[in-house]
Amino acid sequence: MGMFNFQGENFTMDGNPIRIISGAIHYFRVVPEYWRDRLLKLKACGFNTVETYVAWNLHEPKQGEFNFAGIADLEKFIEIAGEVGLMVIVRPSPYICAEWEFGGLPAWLLADSDMRLRCFHQPFLDKVDAYYDVLLPKLEPLLCTNGGPIIAMQIENEYGSYGNDKKYLNYLKDSMQKRGIDVLLFTSDGPLDYMLQGGMVEGVLATVNFGSSPDESFEKLREYQPDKPLMCMEFWNGWFDHWGEEHHTRDAGDVAQVLDEMLKANASVNFYMFHGGTNFGFYNGANNPEYAPTITSYDYDVLLDEAGDPTPKFHAVRKVIENYVELGELVLPDPIKKKSYGQVHMTEQIGLLDHLDAFSTPSQHTCPEPMEKLGQDYGFIMYTTHISGPRIKGSLFVQDVHDRAMIFLDDKFIGIIERDHKEMLSVELEIPHQGAKLSILVENMGRTNYGPLLKDYKGITEGARFANQFLYDWTIHTLPLDSVSSIPFAVKTAVDKDKDEAKANKANVPTFFKGTLEIDELADTFLNMAGWTKGVVYINGFNLGRYWERGPQKTLYVPAPLLKQGQNEIVVFELHGCSEPCVTFVDKASLQ
Known about the structure:
Oligomer: single chain
CATH class of the largest domain: Alpha Beta
CATH architecture of the largest domain: Alpha-Beta Barrel
CATH superfamily of the largest domain: Glycosidases
Number of domains: 3
Helix content: 10-25%
Largest sheet: 9 strands, antiparallel
Number of strands: 32
Distance between the termini: 43 Å
């Protein structure tokens, strides 16, 4: 790769003008076996660059423990991009937003109650420096200044939407440069005065993010940065979905027209996204002010769908690019086979409430502490205490529950308390003469990834009270569910089966189910969770993500590399119950 920079209003490669036509593909949302396929499709569409964020929480899951293997092998992703002839833009800022858990920040930052995020707060900067000490030396050999494909890097992400700490931004810039990052650095912000004022850094190229009205947006950028190249760093050509919403779509013709306007203005562009992929595991983010978690699918209604297939948008965009760049004939990699594997019956199960100690070693606490104080990042957490009796009927409040609590009295389901749902902020309890055991199972449904409410502790974050009396003396079981390999499942006899299935199906008893999928030919497939209520699915120990009957997502994408010939283990953790303990593998996604 040559030397990338800019001169006047043009980007240049080795001194010659070049226009960047880039698309976002996040390596951490696509199984590594499919990286080349997606990158070849990006190239085939007429793009010359791929852009990716870097998710800190994926690479440093525990403080000081680093992971760059498998889906986290960032270097490999960049190398493959270079091999297929693409330039690469990397956005490795500590915070990425991206509808990703905590905007990419590691949850362990919150173990320190005094932590200040995204500002010149030395404890935060120390953690960033320790991360950059490991990350940036991996990227340095891949820079275009060292013959690699990386042409530019971002120093923070839409910072003007969050703060105005220039000392912090300059610290990040210096942190990168002193670790050998000598390619073009940039910032990206919304095209509004306060955003550009807060987010721009002296001596760093500013870019803007938007979905429409390019002339207006570029005019605003020019007010702050005249005589420099125009770039839309995030062209929002689709959008993401929250649980309980309709699936967002945008007309392909509209996207093509906005792109044409940008290219006419001699601007460069990065499509956010080109291919969205999947929020596997517990990595989906959430938005506020009314808490709204993002679904597992990150389809985004863009040029490639969640399974990597070209959409009408792909062809409409390529047609526009063809007017500006000579493309030749469209050559795509062979389509990846899809298959319906049919129905799988769950043959084993185990209830959570009856076997809590098998899942987690309990600890005793005066107050119901949040996950982060117990070294837990994701998953579920169970709080148990005893309430003395008798007490007349009253309301149980879980103050600032993050995010959704199932309430049990003597292991009997009482109701749900859900964050920011005004009609679901308390449940009614009546305590018998001998007192009762109160159990509260809280799900972390994804930390906030954008905006002023970023500091998002999980579990019971304030306290639990019956009427106005706070309850103390708690037994806590952390349930991160990062592995399901040691769950003591039991095979059911016909009599037990009928009894237990009736119980698990109807009584809001959180239950783990296990079944086996036998296959002889590997293909992509989609797991249809119709008839199930809410929970998480694992295939061969890999956490596929969450399902919820609220929709719009009805199926979970299962890429073929997660499967193997012969027996495949399916584990479902269902919180409420299912119409019957069966799942179905189909050959099409369903987002409604």
